[in-house]
Write a structure and sequence with these properties.
two-stranded antiparallel ribbon, seven-stranded mixed beta sheet
Length: 289
């Protein structure tokens, strides 16, 4: 009788528990980056250059001089005018996203200084219901534009959206007209407006204030368009070209004016706004010449 028995399997060593969120994977190349290093680099992957989504408050830190930011209309929150229940209660979904994102809605707005230049700023955050454009989002963008009129300063809107907020129906679509009308008044006053398009900027936002800027700036690799590529392909029954609806594709075709790296965005925007402000202050005879 055998004294020892041969092992029939090798025990699998247990992996050490790695805290969730310690590393972040690049959606483009699979590059793994320590999350704290990624955040310190404004959510831009160092090797691939992929621009990941940046929270709205971090975007304000990126663009506005320290100590000059004053948020406005911070308490605005969506109502439930249609008593929408498909897919769950709308107020409950809003409350869940407020708790998860720390925002009251998909837009934060206010004013501050950008390299010393006064500016009215609105920033959309995709983390809140896909930055869908509801009545509060449209109202905040409109108030940011009207604040620029009141302060006689430039206006900048950082756009990001997956589309209209279906829970608010026609009230969501009305925001396209409201924001566009406010921009028309800003243009009549001769005040500059710059739209910054980030990934993704789609649907109603793209069809309104995202494409009405005196200058339209986009981040590298941003998805920009009205309808999705699959819908367009099925509607036209045609194959779409490579890179369709990216900022690089649209730059070549003249829809946007420039692509700017995130870390250079503040200096480029301030330079543009100073040029606009200087041109506005010149005497009429000099402008005509």
């Amino acid at each position: 009788m055998a004294v020892f028995r041969k092992r029939t399997h090798t025990p699998t060593p247990k992996k050490k528990d790695i805290p969730a969120g310690l590393w972040t994977k690049c959606p483009s190349t699979g590059e793994m980056v320590y999350t704290k290093d990624l955040e310190a680099n404004w959510n831009v992957f160092p090797v691939s250059g992929y621009h990941d989504r940046l929270p709205a408050r971090r975007r304000v830190e990126l663009l506005i001089d320290e100590g000059t930011w004053k948020e406005t209309d911070a308490r605005l929150s969506s109502r439930d005018p249609l008593k929408f229940t498909a897919g769950g209660s709308y107020p409950e979904r809003v409350a869940q996203h407020q708790k998860k994102s720390g925002l009251r809605d998909s837009v934060i707005c206010g004013h501050g200084r950008m390299d010393g230049l006064p500016v009215s700023l609105a920033v959309m955050d995709f983390a809140f219901m896909g930055a869908s454009m509801g009545s509060v989002a449209g109202e905040k963008v409109t108030r940011a534009i009207e604040r620029a009129l009141k302060m006689k300063c430039p206006c900048v809107v950082v756009c990001a959206s997956g589309g209209a907020r279906m829970q608010e129906g026609i009230l969501s679509l009305m925001q396209m007209a409201k924001t566009s009308a406010a921009l028309a008044r800003l243009r009549e006053a001769g005040l500059p407006y710059v739209a910054v398009l980030t990934n993704p900027t789609m649907a109603g936002v793209m069809a309104s204030y995202a494409t009405l800027g005196d200058v339209i700036v986009a981040e590298p690799g941003a998805l920009i368009g009205f309808a999705g590529a699959r819908v367009i392909k099925e509607t036209t029954n045609q194959d779409l070209p490579d890179g369709f609806q990216t900022s690089e594709f649209l730059l070549k075709r003249g829809l946007i004016d420039m692509i700017v790296e995130r870390k250079e965005m503040k200096s480029r925007l301030s330079s543009l706004l100073r040029a606009f402000t200087y041109a506005r202050r010149k005497p009429a005879r000099a402008r005509a010449a």
